[in-house]
Amino acid sequence: MHPPFVVSIHYYSQCNWLLRAAWMAQELLKTFGADLASVNLVPGTGGIYQITVNDALLWERKRDGGFPDAAQMKKRLQDHCFPDRDLGHSDRHAPPPARLTAPTRRRPAPLPRAPLNEDERCICCRQRRSREYIASLPTTPLNGSVRRTCCR
């Protein structure tokens, strides 16, 4: 017979992490409910989010890089408290489902373009424009030369 396991979830109350902590408590109780003595929610300060079992640290937000998802936490609790217990479908690694994708259309290769000179770029945004578009723009005097602009 194993000792009674007491899970404590310490959460930062000022950032409304109560819902996250309550959800994690629910997930742990749903999976290990009969085998756990209790699951405690403990409000704290300073950005804390820790999950302990009988004072053994299983998860710390800062150390482990964020918040755990339910499967990660269940696996850690299983490894720590119930190493011989099977978690069912959570323990089995099924191959990822096949992705259904539409057939891809190959784009035709772009037509070769003549190199653009300075007159084929807008002077204010430096965007490349077609020669026809540039020719249709009004001209703007700039430093003694005439430039075409599309943004002013």
> Strand portion, in percent?
15-25%
- Give the tally of β-strands: 6
CATH topology descriptor of the largest domain: Glutaredoxin
**Main sheet: which strands, in order across?**
2-1-3-4
Roughly how much helix do the residues carry, as a percent range? 10-25%
What's the domain count? 2
Largest sheet: 4 strands, mixed
CATH class of the largest domain: Alpha Beta
CA-to-CA gap between the ends? 81 Å
Contiguous helical run count: 4
Described by the principal axes of the CA atoms, the overall outline is elongated
Instruction: Supply Rg.
Output: 31 Å
The sequence of SSEs as H and E is: EHEEEHHHEE
Which regions are unreliable across 5 or more consecutive residues at pLDDT < 50?
Answer: none
**Average of the residue pLDDT scores:** 77
In CATH, what is the homologous superfamily of the largest domain? Answer: Glutaredoxin
At CATH level 2, the architecture of the largest domain is 3-Layer(aba) Sandwich
Structural class: alpha+beta
